[in-house]
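Shape matters. Shown next:

___
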Amino acid sequence: MATTNPLQFIQQVRAEVSKIVWPTRREVMLTTIMVFIMATLTAIFFALVDLALKGGLKALLGMFG
C-alpha cells in the first residue's frame, strides 16, 4: 500500500470535498416532509392490518370458545 505524506493527503481530501454537491434548503425541506408523510402512511397501514388481524383472531377464537 502506497503511503502519502500529510500534505498530499490534505490536498486529496480538499479535492474530494470540493466535489460534494450539497442539497438546497428547499430539497431538504421537501424530502423531510415526504419522509414524515410516508412514515405516517406506513403507521396507518400497519395499524389497520393489526386491527384486521385482531378482529379476525377474536372471531376465530369466539367460534371455539
About this structure: The CA atoms of residues 10 and 46 lie 49 Å apart. The chain has a mean pLDDT of 94. Residues 22-64 form one domain.
